[in-house]
TrEMBL record, chains A, B:
It catalyses: L-valine + 2-oxoglutarate = 3-methyl-2-oxobutanoate + L-glutamate; L-isoleucine + 2-oxoglutarate = (S)-3-methyl-2-oxopentanoate + L-glutamate; L-leucine + 2-oxoglutarate = 4-methyl-2-oxopentanoate + L-glutamate. GO terms for molecular function: branched-chain-amino-acid transaminase activity. It comes from the Bacteria. PROSITE patterns: AA_TRANSFER_CLASS_4 (PS00770). PANTHER family: BRANCHED-CHAIN-AMINO-ACID AMINOTRANSFERASE, SUBGROUP IIII AMINOTRANSFERASE. This is Branched-chain-amino-acid aminotransferase. Acts on leucine, isoleucine and valine. Its EC number is 2.6.1.42. GO terms for biological process: amino acid biosynthetic process; branched-chain amino acid biosynthetic process. The modification N6-(pyridoxal phosphate)lysine is found at K196. Pfam families: Aminotran_4. Keywords: Amino-acid biosynthesis, Aminotransferase, Branched-chain amino acid biosynthesis, Pyridoxal phosphate, Transferase. InterPro entries: Aminotrans_IV, Aminotrans_IV_CS, Aminotransferase-like, B_amino_transII, BCAT-like_C, BCAT-like_N, BCAT_family.
Amino acid sequence: MDTSVKNLIVEKIKSSKIGQVDFDNLPFGDVFTDHMMVCDYKNGSWGTPKIIPYQPLTLDPSARVFHYGQAVFEGMKAYKDDKGQAWLFRPDENFRRINKSCVRLAIPEFPEEYFFDSLKTLLRLDVEWIKPGEGNTLYVRPFVIATQPGVIAAPSEEYKFMIICSPAKSYYGGEVRVKIAEKFSRAADGGFGFAKAAGNYAGQFYPTKLAKEEGFQQIVWTDSSTHEYIEEAGTMNVFVRIGDKLLTCPTSDRILDGVTRKSVIALARDQGIEVEIRPIKVAELLDATKNNTLKEMFGSGTAAVINPIQGFGYKGDKYELPKVENSYASRFKKQLTDIQYNRSEDKYGWRYKI
Amino acid sequence: MDTSVKNLIVEKIKSSKIGQVDFDNLPFGDVFTDHMMVCDYKNGSWGTPKIIPYQPLTLDPSARVFHYGQAVFEGMKAYKDDKGQAWLFRPDENFRRINKSCVRLAIPEFPEEYFFDSLKTLLRLDVEWIKPGEGNTLYVRPFVIATQPGVIAAPSEEYKFMIICSPAKSYYGGEVRVKIAEKFSRAADGGFGFAKAAGNYAGQFYPTKLAKEEGFQQIVWTDSSTHEYIEEAGTMNVFVRIGDKLLTCPTSDRILDGVTRKSVIALARDQGIEVEIRPIKVAELLDATKNNTLKEMFGSGTAAVINPIQGFGYKGDKYELPKVENSYASRFKKQLTDIQYNRSEDKYGWRYKI
Ligand SMILES: Cc1ncc(COP(=O)(O)O)c(C=O)c1O
Ligand SMILES: Cc1ncc(COP(=O)(O)O)c(C=O)c1O
């Protein structure tokens, strides 16, 4: 793709704050780069995208995002290879998905050239913030918020599309044990769980807080109608390995169609691993624990890439997973990061040069 | 309740903008009074509430409300009687409910004295914005937003509790026909539909837009598991009159426990109207239409008070309701507004003097 950055306004910072940043001690999502992208929607169309110094937003207290949650976002990562070239991983998927989220939230879709042109320009400008070396990434957060003033529950006629970037190490540390949801739910059938909508996240905080008090780090959500089928975790899709088979549930209007998930499925199938995409009953997990056929569980998502799950809790009982040699989790994590950091061939065309 | 407004900072506007407002032509929720209340949560506690001139907010682009929808709100109305005294309607219910919403969204609860002290002070300061006369009200919007910067899906440690006020005429104009949801849903079992959380509203915009294209003004949501039972409308609870019986569905974790709803139930029972609070099947509505026993449907909510529903659509068919004499809808609307405007005895203690 060519960077014919027409109609893009760039206002550079006077002096970079990069010198003040301790790149070895970065709490996830806390530090932001020098610039950000802003594009305003007004009078029925998206205006000129602007790259400007990272700065606060000024909004009316009645802006709709505060009252009605009309907001969507994306999350992707930029990587730097050993030669100093920066890459994104499948940003076309994130672009498609944010527009899918927009449609469901009654937000006008964002033009493709605006997205890629401004994304590239922003990342090139802040390229020093992408550090080479395993685990170093730049987390890129496109998002859209409804800015029109007015406390009336109706779609906004004004929006801001923004991209902010945060240098990051890996997201989850330590061992992860999950609680399988028995009562609380993340998304409704016919709702918008498939969208990366702001409103899907805050509702998970309280149940997750309760789960943490029981010694779990995350919740694996189940379907809201019966709580019999596992769905996904807070910000990860979930995979289960039973015997040598890899299982994951189908995406639906309740479940986010994860980029990492679809990449894992492609990698697995290419390596002759049998992948079953079908509803997974909690009962099946429990049976597999008894039979000793439940070998692995892991989450997949941009932030953590692959996150092994050591155990789970369900109806008061706790289950530990065995330690396996040559786990699928570590294999896929290596294969994905090798592609992301340009250490291996990219036969799928997933790398996107910045 | 006494107004011992300790610890409240008041900064008044220099000159009021009230003279520029056309009170006869007020689009709902568009114009705001001279002052607003702001109270910040930081380092584990709520600070001193401040009444300050209505003004924009400045927030970091990574503030959690923009990304994770951690935000709740309330809606209530102030009325002025013919003697110039201003009143609120059951604000204790709104206070209790916003804290219930806070808990579910992992937001710290707000202290009762802070709420009532600052509310009273604010409304007394802006009392000229409450106009006497039927239909004139001041819509009062308390809300809480997560302000801590950081793109990590975890509860914020900083919040703003605010109250803004907007003079209003009645909310819905004209006839309302509703579409009964067949596919889309508003809330999940085990979710947070019962909370007045920002995230519950934006998800309704797109389905409502589609319903509008079919000639309806609102959607009546059904349960997300079977779509067989009616639940509530966008910002209203729903009542059905079959014969002379009044029906409304029970509140649940999917349904907002409306203040107007509980007031209607109390009024109805006191007048000897039989009220059944139980799940209502769509099939029952269809049967009642055939038998000519479906006499009325109406919504109840702060914005509209009582909103008669003239007809509904379901699976491609449209149903019109008969015009009834002495409708329950108009009776309850009159009784409620008589209490609200201090035109009748307040035997329930619902009026709250400002
Ligand atoms: C709810 C949810 N599920 C799954 C994922 C994983 O998606 P992806 O692999 O595209 O990051 C995410 C996002 O990161 C998410 O928010
Ligand atoms: C979803 C929903 N249902 C019902 C209502 C009615 O509640 P109340 O009568 O307290 O205004 C509202 C709010 O106004 C609402 O947002």
